[in-house]
Design brief:
Helix content of chain B: 25-40%
CATH architecture of the largest domain in chain B: 3-Layer(bba) Sandwich
Distance between the termini of chain A: 40 Å
Shape of chain B: elongated
Number of strands of chain B: 32
Number of domains of chain B: 5
Largest sheet of chain B: 5 strands, parallel
CATH architecture of the largest domain in chain A: 3-Layer(bba) Sandwich
CATH superfamily of the largest domain in chain B: FAD/NAD(P)-binding domain
Oligomer: heterodimer
Distance between the termini of chain B: 30 Å
CATH topology of the largest domain in chain A: FAD/NAD(P)-binding domain
CATH class of the largest domain in chain A: Alpha Beta
Structural class of chain A: alpha/beta
CATH topology of the largest domain in chain B: FAD/NAD(P)-binding domain
Strand order of the largest sheet of chain B: 9-6-5-13-24
Chain lengths: ~425, ~750
C-alpha cells in the first residue's frame, strides 16, 4: 500500500456510471444533459470501449467513431461529467439513493498538460504489446492508445517502462506532462445511483480446442478480424492471413465463418450472443470489398437477424459467392502444406460429415460479460454473469452487462438506465 | 453590429508549431494587416499560466472576441472556454497545428501563408459574428404519450415518477393493449425456463392511481399544433380537450399481419388454421385451445413460424418475437396435458441472448418436435392438415400431419397504412419507403399541423424513425420520440426498456428547450436561425428542405419559424437564395467575410488557392486525425468548417471564385439509403445544389472540375491527403481561375 495515495476528500455526485463504453458514455451524457452530476469511471486509459475496436457497424456499414465523436462533443461540452480513466470500483456500500463507493485509480504518469505532440514516443527506448490490437503489434511504453483516443493524452505502461532511471520522455517533454513517480490513488464517492455498464470480452477461443484457434495461425476470432479490417489496425485495414506477409499481397480465395463458436453450447456459453450472426455478415462485406471473387462460406445453426436486420441477411444472399450453410462445425484441421484450414461440419440429423478446405477461418466467438469482483455486484449477477434486472441492490445495468445485445439496443438501454437513475434521484 | 468588437489574438508556438511556422513574422504580419492591437504568442498556450494571462488580458483590455491560434478546437476545450468570464465573449479557435504545422512542409513560404490565411479567416469570423442569445419561452412540463399498451404505460409511469406530468391517450376504452390479451409472458428473467406471470394489470393499476398521470381513454389525438415545449394537443373523446404539451412519446404499438393474405398457408380456407393471436385469445378466455371445426382439443398442433414474415411477398423483415411466442404457446398446450403432439416448423429459431435457455427448456419437452424447413404446401385431408416442408436438414421433403395449425404471424407497425385493406390496392412490397413528404400516406396518429406532414416520417416498411444506430431515439420531428413495437418488432421487456429510454428523451427535450438549447446532435447550442422576412421571395426552399419540419408557411408561402423544432444544422441558411436566414454566430455574411478576408496571390505568382468547406461532424475530425498522423498534403487549400454541407450557401462558392480561388472542395458525409449525415438530408441537398453550381460555372465559362464534393467518413483520414492532392492537381490541370485579380 505504500505506493497508494489515499485521498481524504469525498467526491459527491448524483450518479456513478461504471464503464465508459458506448453504454456508459450514453447514460452519462443523457443524465448530464438534464443537469445531473455524473462520475464516469473507466478501467482503460481511454473511453469509448469495445466499439472502437470495430471497423464498422451493421447494418449501415458506418464507422463507430462517428457516433463516439458526437458523444465526445456532448461530453466535453458538459461540465456535469467527471471522467476518471484507469479507475476501477473496489467496494460499494449502502443502498439505492445513498451509496459509498471506493475507487482505485492507477497512475497514468502523464498529466493533462499533454498535447499529444509525440516527442516522448519518439525517444522512448522500450516497446510493449498493443492489447488494443490483441497484441498483434507493438507500441512504445509511452503511447497513445489509438489515433483518436480520448483523453487525447499519452499513457505510460508501468510494466514495461524503465522508470526514473531512463526518463528520456521526461527530458524531451516541454510541457511538464510526465511524472514517472505518480502514485496509485484511492478515493471515496458518494452517489445516489449506480449504472453498471462494464460491457463484455470475447469468450476465450482457446477453450474451443477442436477449432484450432491459437494453434493454426489462419484461424482468427471475429474481434481480431475487426482489427485486421480496420484502417487503424495493425494491417492498416488490409485483410491478410496471419501466416502470410503483408507485403506479399497474396490474394485470399476462400473464407469460412464458424458461427456459435462457444455460444449456444452447454460446455461453453449456454446462451446466444445475439450479435455474432450479423457481425459475420458484416465481415463478409469487408471481405467482399477487398476480394471481389473470394468464396465466403458461413456455417450457422440458426441465422439470427431479428427485425429489420433481416434485410441485411437478405441482401448478403444476393452475392453468388456467399454460401449459407446449416450445421455446427465439429472440427478444424490445418493443411500443413499451405496453412489452409479443413473444416468439418456434421449434419446432426444424418451424422454425415462434410469437409471443406478454405484459406482463412473466422470464429464467431460469443460475448462474456466483464465481471468485477465487487461484492454487491457479484450478488446482482445471474449464473451467466449478467446483471439481473431484478437484483436486490438497486444496481442499474446497461448494455451487454445485462445480456448480449447489439449497439443500437445498448444505446436504448443506456437511455433507459438513465431513466431508472432519474427515478431514484428525482427531478431536482 | 450592436457592440464594437475588441479582439485579442493569442498564438501558440508549442507542439512543434514554431518548428514549422515563423511565429514572430506571423504575429507581426497579422497585427499589421488585420489591425489587431493585442497579439500574444506563447509556447504553451494551454498551460495554466498562459490561460490565466489570457483571462487577465480579457479583463484588462475588455476583450469580447478572442482568437486562439494553435491546436484543433476538438482539443483543450475546457482550457479555452472563457464563457465563465462573460457570455459576451466569442472565442474562435484557429487550427494551425493539425491543419498547418503538422501537415505541411516546415519553414516553407506556402506553409507560412497558409497559417496567416487561417488566422485572418478566424479573425474575420470573430469580427462578423455575435454571441448567441438563446430563444427562451415558457414551456410545458407535460409529456403526451399516445398509446396505452406496455410501452405507453411504462412511459407514463416513468415520466410521472420522475416528477413530470404525463398525458396518456388511449384509443380503446381500457388500458393495457395487446398484453392485456395474453395469459403469460415469455421468460424475461433468469433462469429463463418457465413462463412468467403477465403483470400488466398491476402496471395498469399503478398508472391509473398515479397523481401525475392524466388518462384519456377512448380518445384520439385530433391535432398537435405549435412547437416542442409549447405544443397544444387537441384530444378528442366525444368532446375536444386541449392540453399544453412539452414533448411527445408515440407508443401506438403494432397490429398483427393480416392473415387473410396467407391463404397459401390455409388461413381462411381451412377452419383449423388459426393465428397466434387467436391462440392467445382462446387461452386468455379460459376456454383453452380448441379446434374451431368441432370445439375439441386437438390431438396434434403445428406452429408454422414466419407466417408472412421473412417473406418477400409479405413482410420481408423478421418480427422478432414469434419464435418465442410459439414456444410459449406450446407450453400453454402442455399446461393441460402432455399428450398433444406439438410441431414447431421453423426456418431459423430465433431466441437471442439468454432466451436461448428458454428454447433449450422447451426442446426437452418430449411431445414437442422442432423441425426446420419451409412450408411448401398445406392441404386438408381427413380432418387433418397435411403440411409439406422443403429445405429441411434431412435434405428431402418432410410431411407433417396435424389436426390444427397455428400461424405465427408477424407485426406491422401501427403507423403503417395497409392500402390493401383501405383501398383494395396491394402495395405491401419490400420498398415501402416513405420520405417526409409521404408522411401523409402513413397513419394519421399525431396529426401535427406541420407544413411537412401530420406524422413522423417513416422508414422502410412504415416504421417511424430512427435511422441511427448510435442515436436510436433521433427522429426527424424534434422532441417526438417513438417507443415500443411501433418502432420495430420487439418483445414486451424490450418495449418496456424502450419506453424508459424514450420517456427519458422526452423529459430531456423539455429541460433543454426550456433553456433555449438545441437537442442532438448540436446539444446545448443556443443559436437559432433568424429570418429577415422583409426580403423573403416566398421561394419555399427553406420550408421544403428542412429535414425536421421546422418551418410552417403562411398563405403566401412566407416561412413561419418554430425555433424549438429546429436542430441548428443551417440547411435553411444554405437553401436561401436571398441570404435572409442567419444565425448570430454562423451566417452567410460571416463565412463570406472569411472568404473575402484573404488576399490571394496574383496570377503571376503561379500559386493556386483552393477553398474547402468541411463538415464539422465527420470530415473535420478526419482532417484532424490526418494531421495527428503527420500526413502531408498540398498547402493550396484553406478549409472553412461548416455545421453541415447542407448549410453551405452557394453564394460562398461564388464569393470564392470571384475572389480568385481556383477551386472549391466540399468534404461531407455519405448520403443515400445508408446516409451518415447527422442532419439526414444535408449532404444529399449539398449534392443537389451542386447541379446549380455547375450550371453557374458554365455561365461563367469556368471548368466543371473547379467545384467538387467528396464523401469523407470519420475513419477515412488516411485518404485525406490523396483526396486533397488529387483535387488540387485536377484544378491545376485546368489552370488558374481566369477571374483572378479582376
Amino acid at each position: 500500500m505504500s505506493n497508494t495515495v489515499i485521498k481524504e476528500t469525498m467526491i459527491s455526485a448524483d450518479v456513478l456510471v461504471v464503464g465508459a463504453g458506448i453504454a456508459g458514455i450514453t447514460s452519462s451524457v443523457e443524465l448530464s444533459e438534464i443537469g445531473k452530476k455524473v462520475i464516469l469511471i473507466e478501467k482503460n486509459p481511454f473511453i469509448g470501449g469495445r466499439v472502437l475496436q470495430m471497423n464498422k457497424y451493421f447494418p449501415k456499414m458506418c464507422p463507430p467513431s462517428c457516433g463516439i465523436e458526437i458523444n465526445l462533443k456532448r461530453l466535453r461540452n458538459n461540465p456535469g461529467i467527471r471522467i476518471f480513466t484507469l479507475s476501477e470500483v473496489r467496494m460499494i456500500e449502502g443502498v439505492e439513493g445513498d451509496y459509498t463507493v471506493l475507487i482505485e485509480k492507477k497512475p497514468r504518469f502523464v498529466n493533462d498538460n499533454c498535447t499529444s505532440c509525440k516527442l516522448c514516443e519518439q525517444v522512448c527506448p522500450v516497446e510493449r504489446k498493443n492489447e488494443f490490437n490483441f497484441n498483434l503489434n507493438k507500441t512504445k511504453a509511452v503511447y497513445l492508445p489509438f489515433d483518436s483516443a480520448y483523453p487525447s493524452s499519452y499513457v505510460i505502461d508501468h510494466d514495461t517502462c524503465k522508470g526514473v532511471s531512463c526518463s528520456e520522455c521526461v527530458k524531451v517533454c516541454s510541457y511538464n506532462a510526465i511524472d514517472l513517480e505518480e502514485k496509485e490513488e484511492r478515493f471515496e464517492l458518494k452517489v445516489g445511483a449506480i449504472i453498471w455498464a462494464t460491457g463484455w470480452s470475447s469468450y476465450d477461443a482457446k477453450k474451443l480446442i477442436d477449432l484450432g484457434f491459437g494453434i493454426y495461425p489462419n484461424v482468427v476470432t471475429n474481434t481480431i478480424f475487426e482489427r485486421i479490417s480496420s484502417p487503424n489496425g495493425h494491417t492498416n485495414g488490409k485483410i491478410v492471413r496471419p501466416s502470410d506477409s503483408q507485403q506479399d499481397n497474396k490474394l485470399i480465395k476462400s473464407f469460412a465463418f464458424v458461427q456459435c463458436a462457444g455460444s449456444r453450447d452447454e460446455n461453453h456459453l449456454p446462451y446466444c450472443s445475439s450479435v455474432c450472426c450479423l457481425a459475420s455478415m458484416k465481415q463478409a462485406h469487408y471481405i467482399r470489398e477487398q476480394y471481389p471473387d473470394a468464396e465466403i462460406y458461413l456455417y450457422f445453426i440458426d441465422v439470427r437477424s431479428p427485425g429489420r436486420l433481416e434485410d441485411f441477411f437478405t441482401n448478403l444472399q444476393t452475392d453468388n459467392k456467399v454460401f449459407v450453410n446449416r450445421g455446427k462445425i465439429a472440427r478444424i484441421r490445418e493443411n500443413k502444406s499451405n496453412s489452409n484450414l479443413i473444416i468439418e461440419a456434421e449434419n446432426t440429423l444424418t451424422g454425415e460429415l462434410i469437409t471443406r478446405e478454405v484459406e482463412m477461418v473466422i470464429l464467431a466467438v460469443g460475448m462474456v460479460p466483464n465481471v468485477d469482483g465487487v461484492d454487491i455486484i457479484n450478488k446482482s449477477l445471474d449464473e451467466n454473469g449478467f446483471i439481473r434486472r431484478d437484483n436486490q441492490y438497486g444496481i442499474i445495468g446497461a448494455g451487454v452487462a445485462t445480456g448480449p445485445c447489439d449497439v443500437s439496443t445498448t444505446v436504448k438501454e443506456a437511455a433507459g438506465a438513465a431513466m431508472m437513475a432519474l427515478k431514484i434521484l428525482g427531478r431536482e | 453590429m450592436a457592440i464594437e468588437t475588441k479582439l485579442g489574438l493569442f498564438i501558440c508556438s508549442g507542439c512543434e508549431i514554431s518548428n514549422c511556422i515563423n511565429i514572430e513574422n506571423l504575429a507581426a504580419t497579422i497585427s499589421k494587416e488585420a489591425k489587431i492591437p493585442l497579439v500574444v504568442t506563447n509556447q504553451f498556450l494551454c498551460g495554466s499560466e498562459a490561460i490565466s494571462k489570457i483571462k487577465q488580458d480579457i479583463a484588462e483590455q475588455e476583450l469580447n472576441r478572442v482568437v486562439i491560434a494553435g491546436c484543433s478546437a476538438r482539443t483543450k476545450i475546457e482550457e479555452f472556454d472563457f464563457s465563465d468570464i462573460s457570455t459576451d465573449i466569442l472565442t474562435e479557435r484557429v487550427n494551425i497545428r493539425e491543419l498547418v504545422a503538422w501537415s505541411h512542409t516546415p519553414n516553407d513560404e506556402e506553409t507560412q501563408s497558409l497559417a496567416e490565411d487561417y488566422i485572418k479567416m478566424g479573425i474575420a469570423k470573430a469580427r462578423n459574428s455575435e454571441p448567441p442569445e438563446p430563444f427562451i419561452q415558457e414551456t410545458s412540463n407535460n409529456v403526451l404519450i399516445i398509446g396505452g399498451g406496455i410501452s405507453g404505460l411504462n412511459s407514463s409511469l416513468s415520466v410521472a415518477e420522475a416528477g413530470y406530468r404525463a398525458i396518456l391517450v388511449e384509443k380503446e376504452d381500457a388500458l393495457g393493449g395487446w398484453l392485456s390479451k395474453w395469459k403469460s409472458s415469455i421468460p424475461h428473467n433468469f433462469p429463463f425456463t418457465s413462463l412468467e406471470k403477465n403483470d400488466i394489470t398491476d402496471l395498469i393499476n399503478r398508472v391509473e392511481k398515479h397523481p401525475n398521470i392524466k388518462i384519456y381513454k377512448s380518445s384520439v389525438v385530433e391535432k398537435i399544433s405549435g412547437q416542442p415545449g409549447q405544443f397544444i394537443a387537441t384530444i378528442k373523446n366525444g368532446s375536444l380537450n386541449e392540453e399544453n404539451i412539452g414533448s411527445v412519446v408515440l407508443a401506438t404499438g403494432w397490429k398483427p399481419y393480416n392473415a387473410n393474405k396467407l391463404s397459401h398457408l390455409g388461413f381462411g380456407i381451412y377452419q383449423n388454421v388459426v393465428t397466434n393471436v387467436m391462440i392467445e385469445e382462446m387461452v386468455k378466455s379460459g376456454e383453452g385451445i380448441k379446434k374451431p371445426s368441432d370445439g375439441k382439443r386437438p390431438n396434434s398442433i403445428a406452429f408454422i413460424q414466419c407466417a408472412g414474415s421473412r417473406d418477400e411477398n409479405h413482410l420481408p423483415y423478421c418480427s422478432a418475437v414469434c419464435c418465442r411466442t410459439s414456444l410459449k404457446q406450446a407450453l400453454y398446450v402442455n399446461e393441460k396435458d402432455r399428450e398433444t403432439k406439438i410441431f414447431i416448423l421453423y426456418k431459423d429459431i430465433r431466441t437471442p441472448g439468454e432466451s436461448e435457455l428458454f428454447y433449450k427448456q422447451v426442446q426437452q419437452e418430449e411431445n414437442i418436435f422442432l423441425t426446420k424447413g419451409e412450408v411448401s404446401s398445406i392441404v386438408e385431408d381427413n380432418n387433418e392438415l397435411v403440411i409439406t416442408l422443403k429445405d429441411t436438414l434431412f435434405g428431402e421433403d418432410v410431411i407433417v400431419r396435424s389436426e390444427m395449425v397455428v400461424l405465427a404471424t408477424g407485426m406491422v407497425p401501427s403507423t403503417y397504412v395497409d392500402l390493401f385493406e383501405e383501398k383494395g390496392e396491394d402495395k405491401l412490397t419490400s420498398d415501402g419507403k416513405k420520405e417526409a413528404a409521404g408522411a401523409e400516406q402513413g397513419a394519421k396518429i399525431l396529426n401535427l399541423t406541420y407544413r411537412q406532414g401530420t406524422d413522423l416520417p417513416t422508414l422502410k416498411y412504415g416504421f417511424p424513425d430512427s435511422h441511427f444506430i448510435c442515436f436510436p431515439y433521433e427522429t426527424r420531428r424534434t422532441a417526438i420520440y417513438a417507443a415500443g413495437c411501433v418502432r420495430e418488432p420487439m418483445d414486451s421487456k424490450c418495449a418496456e426498456n424502450d419506453a424508459l429510454g424514450a420517456s427519458f428523451k422526452a423529459i430531456q427535450a423539455i429541460e433543454l428547450i426550456s433553456q433555449g438549447k438545441a437537442l442532438l446532435p448540436r446539444v446545448g447550442d443556443e443559436s437559432y436561425p433568424e429570418f429577415f422576412l422583409q426580403r423573403c421571395t416566398q421561394c419555399k426552399r427553406c420550408t421544403e428542405e428542412c429535414p425536421f419540419g421546422t418551418l410552417d408557411e403562411d398563405d403566401k408561402g412566407t416561412p413561419k419559424p418554430n425555433p424549438n423544432r429546429c436542430r441548428r444544422c443551417g440547411i435553411c441558411m444554405g437553401a436561401c437564395p436571398e441570404r435572409i436566414v442567419n444565425f448570430k454566430n454562423y451566417s452567410v455574411h460571416s463565412i463570406s467575410s472569411m472568404i473575402k478576408s484573404l488576399e490571394l496571390p496574383d496570377e503571376d505568382d503561379e500559386k493556386y488557392r483552393i477553398l474547402g468547406f468541411v463538415c464539422e461532424n465527420d470530415a473535420y475530425p478526419a482532417l484532424d486525425l490526418s494531421g495527428l498522423k503527420r500526413q502531408q498534403f498540398d498547402a493550396a487549400i484553406r478549409f472553412i468548417t461548416v455545421r453541415c454541407l447542407g448549410s453551405v450557401n452557394t453564394i460562398w462558392i461564388n464569393d470564392a471564385l470571384s475572389n480568385g480561388f481556383d477551386g472549391v472542395l466540399l468534404l461531407g458525409c455519405k448520403h443515400g439509403d445508408d446516409y451518415q449525415c447527422h442532419f439526414i438530408k444535408g449532404s444529399e441537398l449539398a449534392n443537389k445544389r451542386m447541379e446549380n453550381v455547375q450550371e453557374k460555372l458554365k455561365q461563367l465559362a469556368l471548368e466543371p472540375q473547379r467545384v467538387k464534393i467528396e464523401t469523407i467518413a470519420i475513419d477515412d483520414y488516411s485518404r485525406i491527403p490523396s483526396v486533397i492532392n488529387k483535387f488540387v492537381e485536377s484544378v491545376k490541370e485546368v489552370g488558374q481561375n481566369p477571374y483572378k485579380g479582376m
